[in-house]
Amino acid sequence: MKSSSPLKWFGSREGLYYLALAFLLAVILPLVLDPFRLNMVGKYLTYAFVAIGLVMCWGKAGILSLGQGVFFGLGGYCMAMFLKLEASTPEATAIQSTPGIPDFMDWNQLTELPWFWEPFHSFSFTLIAVIGVPVLLAFVIGFAMFTRRVGGVYFAIITQAIAAILTILIIGQQGYTGGVNGITDLQTLKGWDIRTDEARTALYFVCVGMLFLCLFVARLVQNRKLGRILVAMNAQEMRVRFSGYDVAAFKIFVFCLAAAFAGIGGAMFTLIVGFMSPSFIGIVASIEMVIFCALGGRLSILGAVYGALLVNAAKSGFSESFPELWPFAMGALFIGVVLAFPNGLAGLYRSYVMPLEDRLFKRGKAEAQTSAEPVATTASAEKTDDYDPMINTYSPEKS
Amino acid sequence: MSAAKSKGTDFLLAVEGLTVSFDGFKAVDDLSFYLDPKEIRVIIGPNGAGKTTVLDLICGKTKATAGSIKFAGKELTKLKEHQIVHSGVGRKFQTPSVFEDLTVFENLEVSYPQGHSVMGALAFKRDRAVVEAVEEVAETIFLTDALNEPAASLSHGQKQWLEIGMLLIQKPDLLMLDEPVAGMSVAERKKTAELLRVITRDHTVLVIEHDMQFVGDIADRVTVMHQGKVLSEGSIEHVKSDPKVIEVYLGH
């Protein structure tokens, strides 16, 4: 059955995968990268939040959303609004015709702060809004779509339309949103300058911490019965319904969960990159997010993190040397994933690396068994990687 | 007859004036029938008679155009599918629909009537009661040795049994089975008949079946459907000797 104590879990194969990722992100990368590069990795990681959400929503439950940029953007804009207000003190904006409001509002002849900006003076409200606003929108969309049994391609198209609408809205309402430039020139968080190298490094670690928090929430969901229902729903929606489950409620839940992750990622993006603009939330950005998830392996939450890191690193690398080639490389990557390895990197890892590990593990185990107390032999001991749906293998009780 | 009968509360299931039309075509047309508790009723009829549609209507998969379906005194036509399941109606589909990625144990566990809300499914724990219920059902459906197998690896007949097991663990009052022995080998058929006999000890069962021998084996009463209507109803002997049934279904 499942490992009983958390300590034991870290010794299991799944635990080692998590430890390896933590070691890579929290020890190796900070040691080998300069603050500028580390900040870039932090930016890539903010996309990993979205990718984890997509694993749950698309990989597990089969709901393809091509509009995750919307939730990423909402989380990011919430954070950006707070930071912008903090940067727009009457003293700092004394040269404006209306001091005390963000500069772009002044340029657009606004003379007072719009009502929906007011609550973003409060940091606690902002933190709630970073998750609350994306989840609320996801709930409204999910409720409207899933209770009417809109799914599959139709749902994907609708989410894409919403991404387009939000982008157009933000660009069009320049005075309220900063328009196509976005919300820029963010400086401090509660008086702490976020532009220094130290602050950026600290924010990187906050990002890694939040990422692991999200990973554990996702892992909890996938390992509970809830996770098995999501997988079951994907393949046999009808049977789930006639097993007594309200399928729409489960779809709304997982869509909201993905939106919450994306919102957190967006807020971290704003903090790490220092601004937010519509180009990060539109249709293209949203589709790229799906590619991160697909490349990493759409059934593996850890794979999603690696997918986001690798695709973004490749994007930066390509853009630095051959900027015009990147879109083609991205397209080729997506086609490659779909045709050649539909389960992404995690799938490749599973078929080629894990058999090697198996051999190593077995040898290690045999040695351990001769020296220490016998290892518990359960059917699940061999296969507890993070996307095995049979994670809780049943073993008859010996009572 | 129907007006008088519907007043009674003795029936577990009372279907009255049930009609559904798809773009003007009446797949089920003013259909009425009544099930007693613990009764085994078999619906037979030629292809396109509307048999499967009747089950779809009862379990909420298809919405009725007119008529009423009263189950234990409760109107089902206004309820959603999962609410109908919670009222005690279980439905097995014609082609086996089990969760291929999950093990046999998990298939049964998912169907266990507990933790059906989102939060409930998050908090659900595999306790003794669950394991015992699963083991009990697994024994009934001959799958005790396959509990850890993924459902995808089962044979066609075993999948059919698994789906029946998934209904049994819900502890429904009414079981609806759509051609449970279709595509089964002779040996599997025999075992299924045995299984149904066990099940029918304490369930009301509504079965669609073509195999007349099998029907004769299990049915208390038979309803013959033709073009969305009841053609004949009664014991298997009665139905078999009904000239109308011979004409449209059994052949001369």
TrEMBL record, chain A:
Q: Does the keyword Ribosomal protein apply?
A: no
Listed GO MF terms: branched-chain amino acid transmembrane transporter activity
Q: Where are the transmembrane segments?
A: 15-33, 45-67, 123-146, 153-172, 202-221, 242-261, 267-285, 292-313, 325-349
Keyword Transmembrane helix (UniProt): yes
List where Polar residues composition bias occurs.
368-381
Keywords attached to this entry: Cell membrane, Membrane, Transmembrane, Transmembrane helix
Highest taxon of the source? Bacteria
Pfam families tied to this protein: BPD_transp_2
Membrane topology per record: Multi-pass membrane protein
* Annotated Gene Ontology cellular component terms: plasma membrane
Q: Where in the cell is it found?
A: Cell inner membrane
The region called Disordered is annotated at: 367-399
Entries under NCBIfam families matching the protein: urea_trans_UrtC
Report the protein name in the record. Branched-chain amino acid ABC transporter,permease protein
Q: Organism, per UniProt?
A: Marinobacter algicola DG893
TrEMBL record, chain B:
Q: Which domain of life is it from?
A: Bacteria
Q: Which UniProt keywords apply?
A: ATP-binding, Nucleotide-binding, Transport
Kindly name one Pfam family recorded for this protein. BCA_ABC_TP_C
Asked if the Swiss-Prot or TrEMBL record annotates the protein with the keyword Nucleotide-binding, the reply is yes
Q: Which InterPro entries match?
A: AAA+_ATPase (IPR003593), ABC_AA/LPS_Transport (IPR051120), ABC_transporter-like_ATP-bd (IPR003439), ABC_transptr_urea_ATP-bd_UrtD (IPR017781), BCA_ABC_TP_C (IPR032823), P-loop_NTPase (IPR027417)
Q: Which GO terms describe its cellular component?
A: plasma membrane
Single GO MF descriptor: ATP hydrolysis activity
Presence of keyword ATP-binding: yes
Q: What are the ABC transporter domain coordinates in residue numbering?
A: 13-252
PANTHER family the record matches? CONSERVED COMPONENT OF ABC TRANSPORTER FOR NATURAL AMINO ACIDS-RELATED (PTHR45772), HIGH-AFFINITY BRANCHED-CHAIN AMINO ACID TRANSPORT ATP-BINDING PROTEIN (PTHR45772:SF8)
**UniProt name for this protein:** Branched-chain amino acid ABC transporter, ATP-binding prote
Organism this protein belongs to: Marinobacter algicola DG893
